[in-house]
Write the structure tokens for this entry.
Amino acid sequence: MKITGLQVLAYILNCLRMCTRPCKYFQLNSPYFDRDQGIFSKKQIDRLIPEKWRLPQKYDTDEYQPGSFPVFLKPEWGQNASGVFRADDPQSLARIRNITARARVRYLIQQGAAEKREFELFSILHHADNSRYAVLTVTEAVNRHEANPVNSIYNSSTAYREITDCFSGAQKQALWRLIGQIGRFSISRVGVRADSIEAMLDGNLHVIEVNLFTPLPINLRDPKYGNSELWQMIRRYMSALAMLTRYRDKTLEEKPVFIKSMLYNRENPVLNFITEKI
């Protein structure tokens, strides 16, 4: 909460300094927002992922039985792995479906990725040139207790390790082009699984998640950073985001992203269980 609160404060202050309205943040990724459903639909965003990186995913039904495990059940709308379950066999899948059947959101079932390591690519578009990034970080989600974890800030077994400095300028550009094959998002966090950094750079990976609503720069969760370093990074990220908000494409149709999303969350609460309790 402390980190999130500081980000919001820094963003608002930067927007006021630049004479732009903070509420316009919600228009940054509006082309990908489904006005009718009132969500950034995981199913629709999944269609943007190149087939070579896309994991098999469909709306879940009791009739469907996966050919292999693990599989992950995800609400069509959600953030930070909220309401996500892992099923390791038909029995656990049946137990999970007894829970998701009570949810008022549609659930997707996604095949698990075979790759061994999980990386989070966080980016903010450059305000003056949509072929460049203003911010790009790479963070590895490390979980030594689970073979196929649902990694999130709420999983006590998950730790985050920023590895951005391991990449050269040319390698960062390669990652930026990789993200661009999915979409040129104003702000995003793309989760991928790959067997190694080299494999990821070569495009041998699977995309497990694309977060577009309020993606957290997960590198800020790396415990190596002290308060002073965190504040400096937050100031830099939120300055870039405020600048992008000020110079956003104002010719695009504005959508009621905030209102629709809040109403959806109120009317369709996601069940927050963790797999280990099932």
The radius of gyration is 19 Å. The longest helix spans residues 227-246. The longest strand covers residues 133-142. The chain has a mean pLDDT of 92.
